[in-house]
Write a structure and sequence with these properties.
The protein has one domain: Orthogonal Bundle (Cytochrome Bc1 Complex, Chain D, domain 2), CATH 1.10.760. The protein is 56% helix and 0% strand. It is built from 4 helices and no strands. It starts with a helix and ends with a helix.
Length: 107
């Protein structure tokens, strides 16, 4: 019985480590996407000002609305009222990655 408990505990630890690695990869891909596509205008990190004053910093987005709510807009294509913002339409994986990264900026 003790051996079965140890094996079960080892399995849980392995699954947790695997999930953490996958989540870490999602965050890294989301950060890379933000750096490549958003950093020209937005502050994408925990500090710093946005290069374009009118562009909100990513670390403050969660004060405006839950970042999870961006998923639909990212899938359909973000369109804004100002002409400098390019329209983006992301793939499902890119959306998950970017939202995972944005979530890390909330705390």
């Amino acid at each position: 019985m003790r051996m079965m408990n140890l094996l079960a505990a080892a399995g849980v630890v392995a699954l947790s480590a695997s999930a953490a690695q996958a989540q870490s990869a999602d965050v890294a891909r989301g950060q890379a996407f933000a750096r490549a596509n958003c950093a020209t205008c937005h502050a994408i990190g925990r500090t710093g000002e946005s290069p374009l004053r009118a562009a909100p910093s990513f670390r403050t987005l969660h004060f405006r609305y839950p970042v999870e709510n961006l998923a639909e807009s990212l899938a359909e294509g973000i369109v804004t009222a100002h002409p400098g913002m390019p329209q983006f339409r992301l793939e499902v994986g890119e959306i998950g990655d970017l939202i995972a990264y944005l979530k890390t900026l909330e705390g």
